[in-house]
Amino acid sequence: MGLWIGSLALNATENVVWQRLANRTQGGRAVGGRLHLTETRLLFVPNHLDAIMGGKRWEVHLTQLRAVGRQSPDGGLFSGGLRTRLRVDTDAGTELFVIDPIDEAIAVLDAARTDTRI
Prior knowledge:
By secondary structure, this protein is of the alpha+beta class. The protein is 15% helix and 43% strand. The chain has a 7-stranded antiparallel beta sheet. The radius of gyration is 13 Å and the shape is globular.
């Protein structure tokens, strides 16, 4: 994808339809990277530095998205918890992202969740 963010492994018929820089809460810290939406999946790819420091890639199929919304600040100094975060509820659990603009992210992801044809 670029010099700072790792590349995506997309299927032959898959295209990125929306993407934003984001920090994903992973354990007690926020991992910098990019959140990508395709016709079928939501993926997070950490930047190269955070990947070296243990930042993990993450993905979910859109059929496994249950809800998107806001997570109120919880005071987590290094996890992004000083800000309102994007909350993504999936079949496997909840993921939190610091992302701007959050209202746009919620609208786009909620539309993708309810209409996987984007």
